[in-house]
Amino acid sequence: MVFLPRLLERLRALASNSMIRSLSMPPSQLAQDLESGEVDLAIGYFPDLGNNSFFQQRLFTHHFACLMRADHPLRAKRLSRENFLAAEHAVVRAEGRSQEIFEQYLERNKVRRKIVLMTPHFLSLPMIIARSDLIATVPHALAVYFARLSSGLAVTLPPFDIGGFDVKQHWHRKYHNDSRNKWVRKQVAQLFNDENDEWQDVELGTSPSPRSTATDRRGRAGEPQKHARTRRSARTATGSVRNVGSVR
User: Fold this and answer.
1) What's the pLDDT tens digit per position in 163-212?
2) Which of 19, 159, 203, 235 fits a 20 to 30 Å CA distance from 177?
3) Regarding the domain delimited by 4-62+170-226, which CATH topology (the fold level of the hierarchy) does it fall under?
4) Gap between the terminal Cα atoms of the chain
């Protein structure tokens, strides 16, 4: 989701006849569609794509943040544990894997929060959060993206040291040398990397102001790795682009 505006702008500038198809699917189907070529790239957190059939390239590392309404009584740069547990929460059960990191951390540490709403869709959060006292813990980039769209939302840190997760682009080895796939991977790596991470320079506890597209620089995205330890695709050469996914 957060990748699409800048990626669309770049591809429309360089391949004006291109078309992007963004898909959402279960992780079990993603590997199959990458192999068949139905999906060209998976962008986000996909730990299941770690075997020798896939290449991956780290783009940047992100963490979690809490999204709340701007005039929430608990608003602060970082929530205290007491306030986090006292608050009521909205939880997203999406097909992506990044939310599992946060939920598993809470389970391991026996943290029980008050869940009032469970939804399968991130897109439903901004309207719900802005009209209630609910708090949602989501990937940092997504929280900032939503808060920039509405002055009624603010971003803060959760009270736990959860650690970050690497956002990567993944592709099947069959298409490693495919000229169209290589071209799209290059655009993604130039747009999204540590130096071009437009979501990190946000003062927490505030409502981030709308931001224009960052100037593209050749960032320092890591070199492609075949089975490193450790939204969705596109095809382009003559301009036909399909299946580019978002952070999951």
Assistant:
1) 889 999 999 999 999 999 999 999 999 999 988 766 565 555 555 555 54
2) 19
3) D-Maltodextrin-Binding Protein; domain 2 (3.40.190)
4) 8
Q: Which residues of 189-206 are buried (b: 16+ CB within 10 A; e: fewer)?
A: bebbbeebbbbeebebee
Read off the tokens for 143: 């929280």
Residue 138 in contact with residue 65, Cβ under 8 Å? yes
Please give the CATH number for the structural domain made up of 64-156: 3.40.190.10
The model's pTM: 0.76
In the three-class reduction of DSSP (H, G, I as helix; E, B as strand; rest coil), residue 66 is classed as strand
Q: Could you tell me how far CA 167 lies from the centroid of its own chain?
A: 7
How far is Cα 189 from Cα 147, in angstroms, rounded to an integer?
Answer: 25
> Strand pairing partners for 139?
64
